Amino acid sequence: MFDFHADRKRYFDIQSSNSEKYILPFIESNFQIVEGMRVLEIGCGEGGVLKPFINKGCICVGVEFDKIRIENGEKWLGDDIANGKLSFVVKDIYDTNAEGLGGKFDIIILKDVIEHIHDQKKLLSRLKDFLTPSGIIFFGFPPWQMPFGGHQQLCRKILAKVPYFHLLPRPLYKGVLKLSGESDAVIDSLLEIKETGISIERFERIVKETDYKIIGKIHYLFNPIYEWKFNLKPKRQNNLVRKIPYIRDFVTTCVYYIIRN
After folding, report:
1. Apex CA 98: angle with CA 96 and CA 99, to 5°?
2. Cα angle, residue 127 at apex, residues 124 and 132 outer, rounded to 5°
3. What's the confidence (pLDDT) of residue 1?
4. Of the four, 51, 77, 171, 180, which is 20 to 30 A from 10 by CA?
5. Distances (CA, A) of 202 to 138, 143, 145, 165
């Protein structure tokens, strides 16, 4: 298994490959991408997901509040920045606006981000101000109830390989983490994710409540990123399971959605 936390450059390359092979084609199957379109990624990390969009001729902006990740991205995507194809902004998305980022966007990307946001409904409402009238938003995230939806891979102990234990009641969950010897920083991070984790049902409800329309979705039994992490080919969720609310969350490791106003 590849530990992406230990090698950020390798993870950057994996994110770029995953975006090129799965995210970009999924978007193109629902929305025509043409040269010159503006693309915003929120929580962009080092910018790996954006690279295939740059190669398609899009003008990309990455917003990320972790300065170290942006500094890495500036090294690895320096030519694209120099050519005016990419810019990074070290900010929280709530601390800027479309004008501050150069204008509105045709595509907004949130890959493995929505499950870390505290007020997800507020964020979706906020994103309307960043979209062009025909613009779309892509989401990719793991449903909270899935085997490792608690991001326990952050653990450095045996718990990193234990599925579903993040579903324990909060006091018991915290106690197990402490007994296993996890650091306070890891425990705090995992407890925060426990508060913000999102299910398929909650996501679709928020989309409806904020007056968006779902125009494309895929539910995966095996997350596409597992191709690089575990040498497992992506596998879409069984059609019957995909239609069973709540049950599907426990056995679906990743979902892709496209929504528009």
Report:
1. 90
2. 135
3. 47
4. 180
5. 16, 10, 12, 21
